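ligand=fe (ii) ion
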Amino acid sequence: MTETITKTPRLRAVPRETPLAEILSIVKVDGGVILKGFLTPDQIVRFNTDIEPSMQQLAAGSEHEDPDIAEFHGSNTKRLTNLITLSKTFREEIVDDDLVHQIGDATFLEESGTYWMGTAQVIEIGPGNVAQVLHRDLENYFPFVGMGPAGPEVICNFLIALTDFTEENGATRIVPGSHTWPDYTDRGKPEDTIPAEMEAGDALFFSGKLAHGGGANKTESEYRRGVAFTLNPGYLTPEEAYPFLVDLELAKTLSPRVQRLIGFRSQFPTGSPGLWQTDYAELANHLGLS
Ligand SMILES: O=C(O)CCC(=O)C(=O)O
Ligand SMILES: [Fe+2]
């Protein structure tokens, strides 16, 4: 008699040096992939050192009045934003990483044109925090829910583990295959999910079409810390208004591609003569960026 073995699907994990085409082909099938060793141990130490004072000052939980939004943000979760200003390691290395831009170019350039950063935040899930409601990150942009899998890619997310991510401490949970479901109002059920377990330094790269959510932290005293940043096409409004957060003199020190990610350069969506301009010219010229 042959035994039927039902295998729990696992997220595939590949070294960050894997050829781009292979990374993208995994994401196409699975909706996401773990990139092993995305950050070095040294980068993690330096990034954590940059943000530690701000993390200490930040209270856990959400001040949002809407209880659903507050729960989305997490009752015992710290979310630290404006990482461009707060961390040299983030602005000069993490968002200026060639692999990030190769993946961003491949995801957006042909279909949608230039892209920018939606948000970048440290997400630290503390003990007792319940699982986040399952969602697709593209729900920020409601019309794309109706388009389902046929719609364009409007968000992709790099979620980097800064501590180990375990099932117990709140590893992100994903719903395998949900990026291909015909109906995006169906976000899947908790029992459909698997945890994206990672070692510190690994990154979960995933499509805005993939249903997922932060996991419950069932530990007594462990804090699950990650940093997530998203990219979206230049025709969509980012979550964070970087030009109002980031000092112009600081922006001048950044690479042109990072300046574009944070709205200090114009956007050129496919088919558009340009967006986010000054006098129909490149914003960077107006700002005096070289
Ligand atoms: O923290 C996590 O694991 C995921 C958080 C998330 O998906 C979100 O806030 O959109
Ligand atoms: Fe999310």
